Amino acid sequence: MSSVLIGLKSGDFRLLGYSGSEVRISWNNSENSDKDVRSYVPKGFRQIDLNAVRWLKKISHEPFLNDKSLHQSLLFEASTLWWFFESSLYREIFKEISRCIAVLDAIFVAEKPLSISIVNDNSVVYKTVKKYCEYRNLCFNQVETSYKETNNRKALWRPAALKFRNILRSVFAPKFEYSESKFPRILVTSMAREQVSVNKHTKKQEPEDLILSSVMNELATRECTVIQLYKYPYGNRVRVPANTFRAKQAVTWDSFRDSRIHSSYKKQKSVIKKEWLRLSENYEFRSLWNYQGVPLWEIISDVLRDLWFTNGNAAAEYLLLAKEILGKTKPDIVVMASDTSLDNKAILVQSNRLNIPVISLQHGTILPEDDYLCDYSHIKSDFDVSPSRLNLYPQITCLFGPESYSVMTNEIGYAYNERLKKIGQPRFDQLMNNFTNEEKSSFLEAFELNPDKKSALIASQTFKIAGNKDAFFEVILNTLKNIDDLQIMIKPHPVEPASYIKNLAHRLGVKVTVLPSNFDITQAIKACDFLITSYSTVAIEAMVASKPVVTVNLTGMPDVIPYARAGASLGVVSSDELLSTVIKIIEDPTFVHRQTASAKKYIDQELSHCDGKVTERFVELVLEQTNLV
């Protein structure tokens, strides 16, 4: 976290910039003590974000060297590698830069500061403020950090360990075996999210795909040939889960690597390297990166270089492999749960080239920011060039319901509204089934929870705001520990290590039950008395299960998702509000009934046909697109 001290004629104030998005202001002088970031950016950052994304897209088409643009400089496999790090570049650095400049501009106009002093932590905020001072001819001072890093040792063993893990994955990769079938062939691409749940046939706990397991099982019952392109979840697994392999033919990207692919990939890596060396020394290329009058090259060059090689190399390999996978599996249709990841984006691009239809399924809450904003928005030039951005759009994108549709069309500006279908989420079907007393007792016993006490479930998520996750948990846990006889369960995000939660709870001295990261949260939702989260999709799952939801927003900015404004959740912005709200939930059944009834109205509107049959309807839609049924 970087702090900025801006000298004013009337006094000083402090600007706190959280990495990734949020800026807060606290004043040292009483005259301006009531001002915060909303005083300068009263409408929030959404228009600022959209302008930054449009600017980033615009410069990708501007010719700068021999009449070539970034888009054209990165052509490969009838695609452009720019598509594969554009959103990462925005998410990791340009979002932060554009928001910082917007706030500084507003402060500059309103307060006319004399100087800026900032902690020298070599962060993006630090570099941006320094450049801003040069642009505005302000006095700039740097302050050394008040702390010293105690451990600068790098984990030298990690690259070797990862290399060894990847070798094992290649060795254990299942071999693909093609077989003719009169039934539809469906390639399902996962997104590295798993959950452990009870297999209805074996009665054992087994891993399954978090988003698409019900879809694949339903397709299998209809005698479809299902090929799951398995993506390892975060961690060190080297084998495909046995039950997945038995249920349908599972393959990994490693299943299709061979010497020919490796040779082509190696050549392209060399091209990517030479192109960077050529462009990074070019004045016209460096001059592209001027935003709102502020020259950014010195700020972004390191990040841009890293993305150029990591995302560029990965995209090249994925494009080569995607072409090979589609050629060998010969699918009639591709089903994916996310079309913004590098691997699935490569499958999408190559599928469109081969005229293979693709259906994408919304896997979580869509926000008008980050990857969604960059990948789903567009400018006219995106479609006036070759290759056209049209190759990045599935034939059908299935959404939760009207609110997601509104975000996509009105706030993001999706290019093909007619391709959006409001269908619901298949994985929510199981929430419609009653949780028997036996199942609840079994869950409580497994985690040593007392059935006679109330239970709170906290759903974590991957905050991109530095420091905000700690603040989120500290406020919640320090508040809940003061409530007698309340049991606290925490479900980490699927990509989050449970150790983070355990260590934090131990430091705060709060007794919690931390569920495994890959645990089926449906059971926990049904067993708890209420849910606490920020804006996670789990909030919708709890509403479907008729559990009261408390959404915590400590940012001082508008809610990312308007659950509270819509009456679907109980929104709180402080520990005092959280305490009083939780006590009401525990002590007032009428209050709970009123709240869950309000949430049901929201669910009826947002989740189209949330009746336990979404999987069936989604599968029908998939089969319709194959022209074989």
Count of helical regions: 22
Shape: globular
> What's the arrangement of strands in the largest beta sheet?
12-11-8-15-16-17-18
| C-alpha end-to-end distance | 57 Å
Helix content: 40-55%
The major pleated sheet works out as: 7 strands, parallel
Class based on secondary structure composition and strand pairing: alpha/beta
**What's the total count of β strands?**
24
What is the assembly state of the chains in this entry? single chain
Mean pLDDT across residues: 84
Question: What do these coordinates show?
Answer:
- A seven-stranded parallel beta sheet has the order 12-11-8-15-16-17-18, with helices on both faces. Strands 21-20-19-22-23-24 form a six-stranded parallel beta sheet, with helices on both faces. A five-stranded mixed beta sheet has the order 3-2-1-6-7, covered by helices on one side.
- By secondary structure, the protein is an alpha/beta fold.
- Helix 2 (46-60) crosses helix 4 and helix 7 packs across helix 22 (614-626).
- It is globular and about 70 Å long.
- It has 22 helices and 24 strands.
- Strand 11, helix 8 and strand 12 (249-252) form a beta-alpha-beta unit.
Structure summarized in a few sentences:
With 629 residues, the protein is of the alpha/beta class. It is 44% helix and 16% strand. Strand 1 and strand 2 form a beta hairpin.
Layout: helices, strands, pairs:
Blueprint: E1 2-8, E2 11-17, E3 23-27, H1 37-40, H2 46-60, H3 70-73, E4 75-76, E5 79-80, H4 86-111, E6 115-119, H5 124-136, E7 139-143, H6 157-172, E8 185-189, E9 194-198, E10 205-209, H7 213-221, E11 225-230, H8 242-247, E12 249-252, H9 259-280, H10 283-287, E13 290-291, E14 294-295, H11 297-329, E15 333-336, H12 342-353, E16 358-361, H13 370-376, E17 396-399, H14 402-412, E18 420-422, H15 437-446, E19 454-459, H16 468-480, E20 486-491, H17 498-508, E21 513-514, H18 521-527, E22 530-533, H19 538-544, E23 549-552, E24 570-572, H20 575-587, H21 589-606, H22 614-626
